[in-house]
């Protein structure tokens, strides 16, 4: 890991179970499949392959979970982040849409099974996710989510005003949407547990071994690192937002959107009994999101996107985050101290759905998770491992596409969209006579 890495400032780095012992790659090794990037996607791909007896080598530039997998907020909600399910069916077409919807909405089955089977120490709590409605009109929008997700087998339901207050401890919501299968975790602990599982199943993980170049060698591929090389039949890039230039133009296939996460001091026991008393994950329901939950120590871990001074002016950002939390939960009387603050990066696509690129015969890359890292990365390993095992492309759950650059407007479109959501929510709340949160 880099000496002054921002990764080391995260709450997860301070509290996760230790990383497994690994070494850097030195010399030449051979494999059936070389996976580049030990985040959730690369780890679960390598794990699936190793379990099936495939000789797999996993290369990581830093350590397992160093990128978005170890820097996210730890939510594990098996949904899609922007599009409704009917919209996804129109965008992706069949059979791709139904296959991907099934994998994503059942992703927590996979997460829970891996945590159980490999005894991963990661603070896993599967107590549900609540999206609140901060104005009356938002309740109607949540009814559509109940219908769409329940139709594909998810366990979700609409909450009335009293029920959402009992579940969350907040008096601010007119109703809410409960996804009973959602959970939260220490994501770095999960990544490290997956790394151990890969090694337990016979896979090889090399850390501090960045892929610098990939070139053909006969009918195989050679992946070069600073001190060594892997010669493999197939290569999978699973580096997401932390993609480097080992393959030409791959790092242009997405645009970066930053998110910040912060964690309070451990809250007093009486506060914890009334704020998120059932240890759920909470989304306040505004398009300019504020999402929060507890870690095992009783700290509130909350995240938002930078906007204006929010995210860059740290004292101001701390105030914004504390004011929102105390507005949602007026029973919090103690001062809020944000003892951890860190950034992560999202690899954004126009349609916020991962893209599977065919780079060359025997080489693919997957980018564009767009902010649904834990469940999405965990289920993508199944798709990539199927590709590596020779499943025909027509039978995969993602269409294999030619590599293409993200359009130029993605440099600013996600940020403008967030500003629009903020404006639209504020305008609708005023029209409906609902109280606005501070700094809205």
UniProtKB/TrEMBL annotation:
SUPFAM superfamilies: FAD/NAD(P)-binding domain (SSF51905). It holds the Pfam family DAO. One of its GO terms (cellular component) is cytoplasm. It comes from the Bacteria. Residues 32-387 form the FAD dependent oxidoreductase domain. Transmembrane segments: none annotated. InterPro entries: FAD-dep_OxRdtase (IPR006076), FAD/NAD-bd_sf (IPR036188). Gene3D superfamilies: D-Amino Acid Oxidase, subunit A, domain 2 (3.30.9.10), FAD/NAD(P)-binding domain (3.50.50.60). Keywords: Oxidoreductase. PANTHER family: FAD DEPENDENT OXIDOREDUCTASE DOMAIN-CONTAINING PROTEIN, SARCOSINE DEHYDROGENASE-RELATED. This is FAD dependent oxidoreductase. It comes from Ancylobacter novellus (strain ATCC 8093 / DSM 506 / JCM 20403 / CCM 1077 / IAM 12100 / NBRC 12443 / NCIMB 10456) (Starkeya novella).
């Amino acid at each position: 890991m880099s000496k002054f890495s921002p990764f080391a400032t995260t709450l997860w780095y301070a509290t996760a179970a230790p990383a497994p012992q690994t070494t850097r790659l030195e010399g030449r090794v051979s494999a059936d499949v070389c996976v580049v990037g030990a985040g959730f996607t690369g780890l679960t791909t390598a794990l699936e392959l190793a379990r099936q007896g495939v000789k797999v080598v996993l290369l990581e530039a830093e350590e397992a979970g160093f990128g978005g997998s170890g820097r996210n907020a730890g939510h594990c909600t098996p949904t899609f982040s922007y599009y409704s399910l009917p919209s996804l069916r129109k965008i992706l077409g069949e059979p791709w849409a139904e296959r991907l919807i099934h994998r994503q909405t059942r992703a927590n089955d996979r997460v829970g099974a891996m945590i159980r089977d490999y005894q991963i120490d990661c603070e896993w709590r599967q107590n549900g996710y609540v999206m609140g409605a901060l104005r009356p009109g938002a309740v109607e929008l949540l009814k559509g989510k109940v219908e769409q997700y329940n139709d594909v087998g998810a366990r979700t339901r609409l909450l009335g005003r009293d029920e959402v207050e009992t579940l969350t401890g907040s008096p601010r919501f007119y109703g809410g949407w409960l996804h009973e299968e959602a959970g939260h975790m220490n994501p770095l602990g999960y990544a490290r547990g997956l790394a151990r599982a890969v090694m337990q199943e016979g896979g090889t993980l090399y850390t501090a071994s960045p892929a610098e170049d990939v070139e053909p060698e006969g009918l195989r591929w050679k992946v070069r690192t600073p001190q060594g090389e892997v010669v493999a039949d197939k290569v999978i890039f699973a580096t997401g937002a932390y993609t480097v230039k080992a393959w030409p133009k791959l790092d242009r296939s997405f645009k970066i959107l930053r998110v910040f996460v912060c964690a309070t001091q451990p809250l007093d026991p009486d506060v914890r009994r009334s704020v998120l008393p059932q240890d759920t994950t909470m989304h306040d329901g505004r398009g300019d999101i504020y999402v929060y939950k507890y870690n095992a120590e009783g700290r509130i871990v909350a995240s938002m996107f930078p906007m204006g001074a929010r995210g860059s002016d740290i004292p101001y950002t701390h105030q914004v985050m504390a004011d929102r939390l105390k507005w949602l939960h007026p029973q919090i009387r103690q001062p809020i101290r944000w003892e951890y603050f860190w950034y992560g990066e999202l690899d954004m696509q126009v349609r916020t759905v991962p893209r599977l690129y065919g780079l060359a015969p025997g080489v693919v890359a997957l980018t564009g998770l767009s902010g649904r890292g834990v469940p999405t990365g965990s289920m993508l390993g199944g798709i990539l491992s199927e590709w590596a095992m020779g499943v025909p492309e027509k039978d995969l759950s993602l269409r294999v596409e030619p590599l293409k650059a993200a359009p130029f407007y993605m440099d600013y479109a996600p940020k403008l969209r967030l500003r629009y959501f903020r404006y639209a929510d504020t305008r609708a709340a005023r029209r409906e006579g609902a109280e606005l949160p501070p700094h809205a």
